[in-house]
Design a protein that fits this description.
Strand content: 15-25%
Order of helices and strands: HEHEHEHEHEHEHEHEHH
Largest sheet: 8 strands, parallel
Distance between the termini: 35 Å
Helix content: 25-40%
Radius of gyration: 16 Å
Strand order of the largest sheet: 1-8-7-6-5-4-3-2
Length: about 230
């Protein structure tokens, strides 16, 4: 397999700072414009959880909502596909202006061709995996990933409690990436908050997805700022 360091654009990826990506799954859809404005003003990425009710036991939103957010977004879109046959929707995601696209290891017989397909549409390609998937199973594909999405809860529902064993999994993932010399970013999603942000970064994460902690707060901007304090 090719190492990620051989692909264009990875030097830029590694030069970027730690990012905060509020999950729009927790946004107020009756006041979507206000939720989008929070991300535009305070955060780094829009995290879009797209579920089909088959791979995960829940349904979220589809492309009309993605397009509505894209029309107002001033920050890049990071889409997390929790669906079967993710390859069928890569082109549509690119047409919506998505910049980062991840799909689940559990949804692909062979992730490598899908990672290549995503990159062929000039998007950053990511591989997501649930807490019951051993890190060793992801390791063979890290050289083909621009980023990897380590779930710290089981995919499908927002507001779940952070799984404490995730710290060890994160350290293991970071160790493999460093040992192989890959330039693959690590994104974490699930139960992320100001209380655990610093430790997650210490263990190797560089992109933090936070949903309920941001959008359910009285002052979402202050929550994001407090997470940034922890990340310095």
């Amino acid at each position: 397999r090719r190492e990620a360091s051989g692909r264009p654009g990875h030097q830029l990826l590694t030069a970027m700072r730690t990012r905060i990506a509020p999950s729009m799954l927790a946004a107020d859809f009756l006041h979507l414009e206000q939720s989008v404005d929070i991300v535009n003003r305070h955060a780094d990425l829009f995290h879009l959880d797209i579920m089909d009710g088959v791979l995960v036991p829940n349904i979220s939103f589809g492309f009309p909502v993605v397009e509505a957010i894209a029309g107002m977004a001033k920050k890049p879109l990071d889409a997390h596909l929790m669906i079967v046959h993710p390859e069928r929707y890569v082109e549509r995601c690119a047409e919506c202006g998505i910049r980062m696209l991840s799909f689940h290891y559990e949804a692909a017989r062979d992730p490598e061709p899908i990672l290549g397909l995503i990159r062929s549409y000039k998007m950053k390609a990511g591989l997501a995996f649930n807490p019951d998937i051993p890190v060793e199973k992801i390791a063979p594909y890290l050289g083909e990933c621009d980023f990897v999405l380590l779930m710290t809860v089981f995919a499908g529902f927002g507001g779940q409690k952070f799984i404490e064993e995730s710290y060890d999994r994160l350290r293991q993932l970071k160790s493999i990436i460093d040992e192989k010399g890959y330039r693959c970013r690590i994104e974490v999603d699930g139960g992320v908050s100001p209380a655990n942000a610093a430790k997650l970064v210490e263990c190797g994460a560089d992109t933090l997805v936070a949903g309920s902690a941001v959008f359910k707060a009285e002052d979402p901007g202050e929550v994001i700022r407090s997470m940034r304090v922890n990340l310095q």
